[in-house]
Amino acid sequence: MKYQPLPWKDFLAQRPAVLDSWPTGKDVASIDEGLRYQRGIPESKNFAKAMAKAKAAGRTLLQPRAGVALIDDHIRLLRFLETEGTADLLPTTIDAYTRQNRYEEAARGIEKSRAAGTSLLNGFPAVNHGRDGCRMVTEAVTKPVQVRHGTPDARLLAEISLAGGFTSYEGGGISYNIPYAKKVEVGKCLRDWQYVDRLIGYYEENGITINREPFGPLTGTLVPPFISHAIAILEGLLALEQGVKSLTLGYGQGGNVLQDLAALASLRELADEYFHRAGFDGYDLTLVFHQWMGGFPEDEAKAFSVISLGAFVASAGRVEKTIVKSPQEAVGIPTKESNAAGLKATRQVLSMMMDQQICTDNVVIRRETDLIRREVDSLMSAVFAAADDDLVQGIVRAFAGGILDVPFAPSIYNKGKVLPIRDNEGYIRLFAKGSLPLGEDIMAFHKERLQERSKAEGRPVTFQMVTDDIYAISKGKLIGRPK
Amino acid sequence: MKYQPLPWKDFLAQRPAVLDSWPTGKDVASIDEGLRYQRGIPESKNFAKAMAKAKAAGRTLLQPRAGVALIDDHIRLLRFLETEGTADLLPTTIDAYTRQNRYEEAARGIEKSRAAGTSLLNGFPAVNHGRDGCRMVTEAVTKPVQVRHGTPDARLLAEISLAGGFTSYEGGGISYNIPYAKKVEVGKCLRDWQYVDRLIGYYEENGITINREPFGPLTGTLVPPFISHAIAILEGLLALEQGVKSLTLGYGQGGNVLQDLAALASLRELADEYFHRAGFDGYDLTLVFHQWMGGFPEDEAKAFSVISLGAFVASAGRVEKTIVKSPQEAVGIPTKESNAAGLKATRQVLSMMMDQQICTDNVVIRRETDLIRREVDSLMSAVFAAADDDLVQGIVRAFAGGILDVPFAPSIYNKGKVLPIRDNEGYIRLFAKGSLPLGEDIMAFHKERLQERSKAEGRPVTFQMVTDDIYAISKGKLIGRPK
Amino acid sequence: MDVPRIVLGVIGADCHSVGNKILDAYFTEAGFHVVNLGVMASQDEFLDAAVESNAGAILVSSLYGHGLIDCEGLRQKAIERGLDKILLYVGGNLVVGKTPFAEIEKKFKDMGFDRVFSPHDDLTEAVKLLRQDLEDRKR
Amino acid sequence: MDVPRIVLGVIGADCHSVGNKILDAYFTEAGFHVVNLGVMASQDEFLDAAVESNAGAILVSSLYGHGLIDCEGLRQKAIERGLDKILLYVGGNLVVGKTPFAEIEKKFKDMGFDRVFSPHDDLTEAVKLLRQDLEDRKR
Ligand code: B12
Ligand code: B12
Known about the structure:
The complex is a heterotetramer, with two copies of chain A and two copies of chain C. Helix content of chain A is 51%, strand content 9%. In chain A, helix 9 packs across helix 10 (225-241) and helix 10 packs across helix 14 (363-387). Chain A contains 17 helices and ten strands. Chain C has one domain (6-93, 113-138): Rossmann fold (3-Layer(aba) Sandwich). Chain C has helices at 18-29, 43-53, 67-71, 74-80, 101-110, 123-138; strands at 5-10, 33-36, 57-61, 87-91, 115-117. In chain C, strands 2-1-3-4-5 form a five-stranded parallel sheet, sandwiched between helices. Chain C is globular, with a radius of gyration of 14 Å. The mean pLDDT of chain C is 96.
């Protein structure tokens, strides 16, 4: 495989069209102005530094998700989350029109929100608010702020938000396409993300480290760890290729504690191995654990417990960051109080568990870690084999051939043939493997484990079981057993 | 040691005075009427049966605490907890005047509560409401109901509540005296509880099994497992001696997950060993785990997390029952909604963890189990040695000599010289052992672990550390570190 | 007996695909012919599909909070397209933030939807209502 | 300088001893002479101890919810015993159930208490107030 950054002249060639795609683009025409601005940001507000410090100290930082339509409201929200919620890291979640580059609709959302006196957008339309709007936000708070979105073509958003003082950028060419879009070509999206990573690489060359976080959980719904791991590692390679140095890989809680701990342990190890093997060095790798990303229980007391269990795993898994849900998750975008409540509940678990050593090394965890390794290796070598030295090509072909396949994803470029089901102990296994290049021994294990459940429940493994599992946690169970 | 039940004629000799101590006593003059009534209670409402079933099925049942002054309100409360809260087992928590046999004050509390339209008593005054009042309660619900109190002289309460259809009775001659009273002589209380246990033994002889549950957590505040274990086992022996067959021993969450798991494992084993060695057989032993019994955080989101962590341990420890706290614990007796919220949060954790095997056997848990065993054995053999074949005498002398000593207890008959402190990982250890008969090797271990913390915090082990630990969980930590 | 036809999809810029896949399977199994547009379907796509398939009902999902904006005018457009008898159902997390369901229901009914569902409504019930409503429309 | 004397205890049938032990240690360290009655102290015990020790203040704890019933009449009785200048402080979980603190405070102030504390009030603050109030009473 050949890794080489996008040539700077190619980057610059693309740039005018990117900036032209919405009027606020012209404010960031000078990259150097953005760099100068970033140089003025105190260290304590740099996301990459905060992550590195957490790693050194063995601490887990807390970050919520939050974003509303209007600047003032958004500032009030973030301030509340850092004071009352004691968030360590702040987000700015981008609205769904902006994510699809539908800036006109975002503009309408801003107008309507002003008129309604409440946010009618599901996030902060950073492109519409422009560089200065972003600076108002990042200057108003004391903690590092990250852009969290779900944007296949996130080039303009990156230009504006980095110049606007954000110091971390979520997403990736796979993870912000396949789960978030319907008709975006895999190759097109990967190339647009090369632009983003190259921009951040340029900042890095100029002394400004911006943290990059591929979106680990994908569809958030019963994704087997090896699938999200393979994608996280691929996006990590693509980011490192462009010169990114502060990299945070993510994993979304699956619900079985030991599988989750095995997933976290293996993600850290595998990523480092693949990165070193590809010749990358001198980067800073950290992990983020997302509390349960699938359907939540409507009842807030139950939702609190899902949050606490997630916090427990974050703590036992010794991750550098955990993304926190709110007790209103199943219902709607949380009020700031509800968002803070999720943070406080998480904080309580983390600080009660902080000094405790929970058994993370036992025979079961080793079995699962080993399984995940073999599965990831199977996918990765198939992707590499399809790549002809060009990783982007490899990934495009991998999706076309079902070597990579994300369960329940909306993208038409995703085969959608993989069906996960929980086994009798709640581990996420494969019911249908689609075209995933997994060996027979591996599939035999999955099958055996599912038969165990089938027997226990006295029913065959069918799509009904998949559906039952999708609903299970929202209905107060882990496994979707028949009544 | 000689074990022999209180002779029936001695029981009957005491009885008139017991029943005469409050007018409602006369309604239960005929024990046989009570037995007949109990025979009419459906199996599904027998507490002992429910516990045995849970044991056989490997399930953990949920029980809240609840009690208000007036019958109708109390019924409404219990019904809400069994429907909305999906409690498996119901409580009737008795008010604090009744616990001190101050029935006149309880009567005043009932009056004032009627006038105020809200309960001014902190529990249900079962003696004042009498047999028929109790029957109204136990008949109004579908789940087994237990009397939960804290009454040193609980003879009349037992007579009335058993005839009133309750099928489980909490307490014991140590656990309902030392943490709950100031001036009640140890021997007097033990003899009064012989009466209670004998009454239940009589029910048993006549085919009605009443579940008995010594109160495990004692003062609920940093009690080292071995102290509460020794007392639980002693109360178990005293109950079995009187013919009790369904016995549930309790333990209150300490906060360090591995210590708690070791405590649960060792309690089950040790109890069986001591009971068998004493010649008892044919009893049914189950365990109850109390979610954190010390000071709670005021913030409800944080309280939810303390509840969830407790639920997690209950599940991993495979206990038959867990007693659930509410998110309002730090503030006041919970509303029925808040009480149900605690149940729902607990249910969510239990059902998500139900099918998962969490590592309960590892080197640390074995180290702690072994330690607890040696500590319990030290106390037990000293109590037996002091007993001269009479366990009651042995216990009286043990408290007088500090062989048994409960931290922070109010009783003047408790030496109060034992001071617990958390070590650097949050395990509850001994700072001062008072006169507890623990060998030097054991104390050396405690000391070593505390020195580790002392070094980590750069301050000596003092009473300030004890205070800090008492406050810690309510302030969002496990260990009371200096700021 | 002919199979009742319905159009299903997630409106706007909404990517939540999990519920959509489940609804597809559910209504298919319940005996409907489901034309599923998947996620990110525009109003026009819904109406085109309804015209083409001669559907009796359009089932709109909106999970991500922009439901009010995305659904505005759908009823009028349907009438313009001659679909004046078509049933319009909508369900999901329809607005931004926790809001009393009665309020949400009213807003969407005012916009011309026949029935409005919360994410926690029972699908058996929805199927029953849809069958009934389709029957009623026939007369 | 003479050491200010205070009487401390948990009133009624209340057995909560943990906070009482901490308060004893805290006020002692803060320089007070503490006469600690422990738990389950009656009104008469509080007043007897105050008379005997010539205390400037009585600090009543009530955790278990019966605070209103147990504290009723303490001020009058104190006056009857000639303790008409004595400070009465009360703190803890004073009533049954979650209740706005302002309401609780009013009830106990109406009963003649000088200051009312919630379980989460800062003890440093309490010590400061007590010192100040004792000074003021002297004049
Ligand atoms: C998984 C998930 C995701 C995944 C989706 C992956 C995918 N491609 O599907 C990811 C992580 C990518 C994601 C992204 C976002 N999400 Co999202 N997501 C969820 C989550 C946790 C579960 C959704 C789910 O799959 N549920 C399981 C399925 C089976 O249930 P369902 O979707 O509700 O569908 C059922 C019912 O609603 C009902 N139903 C639906 N439509 C209809 C129609 C009719 C006629 C009937 C009868 C019934 C019906 O039947 C369905 C089947 O049972 C929900 C919260 C929750 N529910 O717990 C948030 C949630 C829906 N997301 C939300 C948001 C805001 C977003 C984002 C904008 C990011 C952000 N700001 O946080 C982006 C959306 C970007 C975009 N372009 O759409 C919000 C919506 C807020 C609101 N309405 O106020 C929610 C509620 C979370 C929250 N509380 O903030 N999300
Ligand atoms: C531990 C505990 C117990 C233990 C007590 C062991 C013992 N002997 O001490 C046990 C399990 C035995 C117990 C029993 C009961 N308890 Co209890 N218990 C608690 C718990 C969990 C912690 C108390 C504690 O030790 N806190 C730590 C100490 C340091 O804090 P503290 O007690 O609040 O004291 C501090 C402050 O209040 C303040 N303060 C107190 N007084 C004063 C006075 C002044 C002047 C000032 C300035 C400050 C001040 O300073 C103290 C030191 O920092 C509380 C709930 C909570 N707080 O989380 C319930 C609680 C106090 N108990 C309660 C009840 C009702 C009972 C029972 C009646 C049983 C029942 N119905 O559930 C029985 C009481 C029987 C009796 N006769 O009293 C209720 C009271 C309800 C209410 N007021 O509405 C509470 C609030 C729990 C609840 N939410 O239901 N309990």
